[in-house]
Amino acid sequence: MPHIQTPSTASRYEGDVPDGLIEHIRSHVEEFGLPVDASGARLTVRYADSEVALQAGRASLDVTITAGTEISLHKTRESVIYLLDHVFPQASASMAWSGVDTGRRHPPNFHFASVSGVRRVSANFMRIEMDCDAIAALSSGGMHFSLLLPPKGHAPVWPALNAMGRTTWPDGDDALHRAAYTFVDLDEAAGRFTFDLFEHDGGRTTQWARAVKPGAVVGIAGPGGGDFPQGDRLFMAGDETAIPAIRRILAASPDTRQGTVFIETGDPADRCDLPRPASIDVHWTERGTEPDLLTRIKETTLPADETFVWVAAEQSLVRAARDHFRKSGVARTSCYFSAYWTR
Ligand SMILES: Cc1cc2nc3c(=O)[nH]c(=O)nc-3n(C[C@H](O)[C@H](O)[C@H](O)COP(=O)(O)OP(=O)(O)OC[C@H]3O[C@@H](n4cnc5c(N)ncnc54)[C@H](O)[C@@H]3O)c2cc1C
Questions:
Q1: Dmax (CA) of the chain
Q2: What is the ipTM of this complex?
Q3: 74 — phi, psi (to 5°)?
Q4: For domain 233-341, which CATH number applies: 3.40.50.80, 1.10.3720.10, 3.30.160.250, 3.40.50.720?
Q5: How many CB atoms lie within 10 A of CB 161?
């Protein structure tokens, strides 16, 4: 049988390591609800599809990452680099990583996609269909992607992978506009995916979608940004931008799952069918009418047994909901709070 190698990467820093570094890192990763095992100067952090082991000495720090795919390996390495930039910048700036494919121009989670169609699906939503060679890689490891639009009138400069394993993003006049979207459907056989875009005033992506012609090529980065929640019981709340994610999560839920969902839209004409288990209730609310979405969230009493709490909407609402549920004692490993947009 052929030996299948698990993608891995490692890095070693040699130099003074501050006391309490492992504890400091642990407090940050626990904030994100990631499961950790700590024993003395060793810390193991488990992501959905990867694992990070950190071992600190007085004069060295070793980091090893293993992952299910090259994409999750790259994304986990970027998270670790980002964290070390924050907690131990003098180390992260000089840490080289094994296994970085220097022959690769773009990071593993960067892909090209070309528009094959745009159609209206409701009063304020457009469905965009994209051809992409990387559908297999996009099908697991997150429900979302970032659409990367070059500045108008400029030849695109796409993200690159440097020898230190970091993604370098074009900046200044070449900076890309990045907006996250949720896959509606991924068709591996056809090499095609779709996403639903909520049109709103001032949106660069809205303007792009209204004008784009079939064949236009853009960059995308993904998959990422949160996966299907686990658990027998769900509480979900969101606005228009969360509808595609809520729809996918409900459609993929086992028949036995129970729960409650609140969705707020500005226009009732954007309400849509949400195929789901019989024991999940969906309540649509209209923005500007009372009780508003936050009041509905706060009025909900979660059953004593474990419920996964999922909230995605405008940043201030998500923060208020997160504070509310944290005070109610919801475990960090049983929730997803994500600011899908900011005012
Ligand atoms: C993980 C994730 C998944 C997402 N999935 C989807 C999805 O499937 N479909 C979808 O439509 N959106 C989705 N979003 C939200 C989307 O990324 C943001 O709304 C994003 O700002 C849109 O970019 P833009 O180029 O249209 O506007 P931007 O250029 O980012 O913003 C321009 C202006 O529009 C305002 N704005 C941004 N979003 C909204 C809004 N929803 N309502 C009113 N004003 C707004 C901003 O405050 C700003 O003033 C998702 C976000 C995340 C993080």
A1: 63
A2: 0.99
A3: -65, -45
A4: 3.40.50.80
A5: 21
Ligand 1, pocket residues at CB < 6 Å: 144, 177, 179-182, 195-198, 200, 202-206, 225-226, 240-241, 244, 338, 340-343
Phi, psi of 266 (to 5 degrees): -80, -30
CA 274 to CA 247: how far, in whole Å? 6
Rounded to an integer, the average pLDDT of 146-170 is 94
Give pLDDT, residue 226.
85
CA 44, 45, 51, 57 dihedral sign is negative
pLDDT of residue 3 exceeding 60 = no
Kindly report the backbone phi and psi dihedral angles of residue 6, in degrees, each rounded to the nearest multiple of 5, phi listed first.
Answer: -75, 130
CA 230–ligand 1 middle distance (angstroms): 26
Q: Whose CA is nearest to atom 4 of ligand 1?
A: 181
CA distance 235 to 135: 30
Between the CA of 112 and the centroid of ligand 1 the distance, in Å, is 21
CATH superfamily of 8-92: Alpha-D-phosphohexomutase, C-terminal domain (3.30.310.50)
Q: pLDDT above 70 covers what percent of the chain?
A: 98
Cis ω for the linkage preceding 18 (within 30 of 0): no
CA of 52 to the centre of ligand 1 (A): 32
How far is 25 from 28, CA to CA, in rounded Å? 5
Cβ neighbours of residue 80 under 8 Å, at least 6 residues apart? 52, 63, 65
Distance 273 CA to ligand 1 centre (A): 22
